[in-house]
Amino acid sequence: MSEDSGKKLTMVTCSAPVNIAVIKYWGKRDEELILPINSSLSVTLHQDQLKTTTTVACSRSFQEDRIWLNGKEEDITQPRLQSCLREIRRLARKRRSDGEADVDTAGLSHKVHICSVNNFPTAAGLASSAAGYACLVYTLSRVMGVEGELSVVSRQGSGSACRSMYGGFVQWIMGQQGDGKDSLAQQVEPETHWPELRVLVLVVSAERKPVGSTSGMQTSVETSSLLKHRADSVVPARMKEMIEAVHKRDFTAFAELTMKDSNQFHATCLDTYPPIFYLNDVSRRVINLVHRYNRHYRETKVAYTFDAGPNAVIYTLQQNVEEFVQVVKHLFPPETNGGQFLKGLPVAPTTLSEELKQAIGMEPMVKGISYIISTKVHRHTHIHTYTHAYIHTYIHTYIHTYIHTYIHTYIHTYTHTHTHTHTHTHRQHPPGPLPVSCASLRVGVVEGFGERA
Amino acid sequence: IKMPEDSGKELTMVTCSAPVNIAVIKYWGKRDEELILPINSSLSVTLHQDQLKTTTTVACSRLFQEDRIWLNGKEEDITQPRLQSCLREIRRLARKRRSDGEADVDTAGLSHKVHICSVNNFPTAAGLASSAAGYACLVYTLSRVMGVEGELSVVSRQGSGSACRSMHGGFVQWIMGQQGDGKDSLAQQVEPETHWPELRVLVLVVSAERKPVGSTSGMQTSVETSILLKHRADSVVPARMKEMIEAVHKRDFTAFAELTMKDSNQFHATCLDTYPPIFYLNDVSRCVINLVHRYNRHYRETKVAYTFDAGPNAVIYTLQQNVEEFVQVVKHFFPPETNGGQFLKGLPVAPTTLSEELKQAIGMEPMVKGICYIISTKAGPGPRVVEDPSEHLLGSDGLPKESA
C-alpha cells in the first residue's frame, strides 16, 4: 500500500477480561499510587462472556488525548486515566533512552484517541473498571511498544485492574515499598490448570446505587478497627491457604475460604462508620441457599462471593452446574418477559428432586435475580501483536470493512498452543521487529494477553 | 410476703417485676457455656417497667409435689438446665444464709417446692429479648421468697447472660470477670435511672418474616469461627467500655450515640464474619440505619442513635427534645398499616409536622408496613416487689389464675 498525503495513524485494538477476587482487596495504604493494605487473589473470567474491548489510535494529527467509554466521550483529565497515560509514556521514553530500537520515537509525543466498550451492561455492576484499565494499559503498551511488567501501571488506574493483566488465577502482591514498584500482579496458575472450575454470575436487580468502592474503602480504612486486623492478621494466612488450594485444585478449601473472605469483607463494611451495605435481601438469600445446598449434600459443592454490590458470583465444579442453575431458577423464578435468563456458556436444563427442594426449604423470590451469566476461567485463544496489514488512512472507511473481515478470518484460522512460562516479565515478542517508522496503519487484534497457557 | 395461714396449709407467695435492658456495648460470645461467662464486658440501659416488664409470682408450699413453671400461660419444662441453675443457686445461697446463722430464713421453706408463673406485658413474638427480664425476675422473686440478700446478678447470669444487667436500674455494666468459677462476673450499676432524665428510648418493632438464629447457638458459632470477634473482644471492647462509661457519667449524648451505633454495627459485623454467616439485620433494619445517618447528617449533629440486638427490631436512643420529630420521621418513612391498630405505644408523643426540607434531605422511599409499631419509653429502675396481692399470678392453690 502506498503512503498517502503524509498522514500517519497507528491503531491497535485489544480486549481484556474481568476478574473476581476470592481473597478481597479493600483498603489502600496510598491513595495516589493505589497501594493496598493487603494482598488479594482473583480468578480471571473468560472473555467470551465478559470483556472490555479498547482501540487506541495514535497520530501526530490528533490535537489532544481523547477518550470514549461505551459510546460517550469522557473526561480525559480524570486523574487515574492520566496516571496510566503518564506511566506508559514514561516507560516508552525509558525504553527509547535505554536504546531499545523498536520504539516509534515520533509516536511518543503524539496524542491518542481511546475508545472502549464492554460486552456486558455497565448498569449490571460487574466491576468493569478492572477490565477497563487493564485493557487501556495493555493497548497503550502495544501502541507505544512498551514491554515487561505492566500490572504496576494498570494498578494505578484501578487497583483490581492489575489482576486482569493475567489469565487464570492471579495474586496482587501488596508490596512494601513506598514507590509501589513491588505492588504488582503475578499469575498463580494458568487457566488450564483447573478446567472443571466454573463460574456463574447472578446479576441482581440493584434498586439503589451502592456506595462507590473508592470512597467506601477509604471510609473503611479510616473507621473500621476490624479491617485493620483483617489486613494485618487474617489475609496473609488466607493468601497462603488459597494459593495452596488453587495449586492442589482443592475445591472444598477454595470454596470455604472464598465464602469466608467474602463475608469478612462485608463484615468490615458493616464495621465502617457510617456502615456500608452491599449485600441486600437477595444476596442474603443466595448465601442461605448455598449453605443449605451444601449442607444437604454434606459437601461444599458451591461457593459464593460478593463484591461491592449485590451481584453474586458462584464458583462450582462443572458437574454441579446444571443442577445448581436449576436450583437458582427454581428459587428465583425469572420474569416471564421473554428476556434471556441464562447467558453465556450453555447449560442443559435438568429436574430437581423433591428431596432437594425440601431440604433447601426456602420460598421462591420472584425477580430477585435478573439473569445468570455462565462462564469459566479465562482461556487464551492466541496472542499476537504482529502487524497484520499495512493500510493507509485515506481509505479509512474501506479499511474498516476490510480489516474486520481480514482479521476475523485470520484469527479463526490462527490458533496456537503455547507452553506456559510463569515469570510475569515474559511477554510475547513478535517474531520480527516492529516497524521503526510508523508510516502505515498497524493493526493488531488481541484476543488475550499476558501469560499464555 | 407471707400469706395468712389457710386451714393449716402454709403458702408463701411473692410477686415481683423486672425490666428489659438494651445493650449499648454488646455481649456476644461466651468463654464458659455452663456458667455463662462472656468473652467481653457489656453495658446496657435498663428500660422502664411501665412499658416493658416481666411479672413473676413464686409460690412456695410444703404441699407442692414438685417445682413447676408457667410462662405466658403455658406450662414449661422445669428441668431446663438454665432454670435449674437458677433454682439450685438460689437454694444454695439460702442454705448458706441459714448456716451463717442469719435469722429470718424460713428454714422449713428451703426444702419446699416452688410454683412459678411469669408473664410479659409485651408480645414474645416481638423478639424483645424477654429472657433477660424473665430470668432477672425469676431470680429476684425467688430471692424474696427464700430470704436471700446481696449480690444476685451472678445467679441470674446463669439463667441468661444479659439477665444480670436487668438486676439494676439505669445504666448497668456486666463486668466480664477473670475467675474460672465466675464469681467476679457480675453486674454493677454505672449510674441510676435518675442520672439522665432527658434520655429517651424508642423501640421500633419490625415485622419478622423468619425466626432468626437463636442467640445461644449463634454466639457459639461466632466464637468458634469468627477471627474478627476475638479481636473485638480482646482489643476493641475494653477501650469502648471505658469511653461509654465516661459518656454516661458526663451525659455526653454525641459520644454515647456514636459508640452505640458503632458497637451495634460491629456486633453484626462479627455475625457476618461467622461461618455460616448470621444475619439479624434485614432490609427494614438497614433502612432505619440509613434514616438515622441521613437525619443526623442533615442537622450536622448526632441527635439519634440506633442499636440492634439478635433480631430486626431497632432501638433508638435520643434526647427528649428530639422525640416528637423523630417519631414523625419514622411514621413518614415507615407508614403504618391503616388497620386501626395502635402504632405508637408507651409514653405519649405529641404529633408534629415535618418540614419539606427535612423530608428531602432524608430523600428515602417510604417503606409501608416495615415497622409494626413503636414503643416510646425511657430508662427505669431495677426489679421490685409488687405489693398489691391482686397482681399475684398464682391463686392460693398454687396454680395460675384464670386471668393470668
UniProtKB/TrEMBL annotation, chain A:
Residues 16-185 form the Diphosphomevalonate decarboxylase-like N-terminal domain. It catalyses: (R)-5-diphosphomevalonate + ATP = isopentenyl diphosphate + ADP + phosphate + CO2. The keyword Hydrolase does not apply. Residues 199-378 form the Mvd1 C-terminal domain. It comes from the Eukaryota. Its EC number is 4.1.1.33. Pathway: Steroid biosynthesis; cholesterol biosynthesis. Belongs to the diphosphomevalonate decarboxylase family. This is Diphosphomevalonate decarboxylase. It comes from Oncorhynchus mykiss (Rainbow trout). The lineage of its organism: Eukaryota, Metazoa, Chordata, Craniata, Vertebrata.
TrEMBL record, chain B:
SUPFAM superfamilies: GHMP Kinase, C-terminal domain (SSF55060), Ribosomal protein S5 domain 2-like (SSF54211). Residues 18-187 form the Diphosphomevalonate decarboxylase-like N-terminal domain. Residues 201-386 form the Mvd1 C-terminal domain. One of its GO terms (biological process) is isopentenyl diphosphate biosynthetic process, mevalonate pathway. GO terms for molecular function: ATP binding; diphosphomevalonate decarboxylase activity. Pathway: Steroid biosynthesis; cholesterol biosynthesis. Signal peptide: none annotated. Keywords: ATP-binding, Cholesterol biosynthesis, Cholesterol metabolism, Lipid biosynthesis, Lipid metabolism, Lyase, Nucleotide-binding, Steroid biosynthesis, Steroid metabolism, Sterol biosynthesis, Sterol metabolism. The keyword Nucleotide-binding applies. It catalyses: (R)-5-diphosphomevalonate + ATP = isopentenyl diphosphate + ADP + phosphate + CO2. Its EC number is 4.1.1.33. The keyword Lipid metabolism applies. Residues 382-404 are annotated as: Disordered. Catalyzes the ATP dependent decarboxylation of (R)-5-diphosphomevalonate to form isopentenyl diphosphate (IPP). Functions in the mevalonate (MVA) pathway leading to isopentenyl diphosphate (IPP), a key precursor for the biosynthesis of isoprenoids and sterol synthesis. This is Diphosphomevalonate decarboxylase.
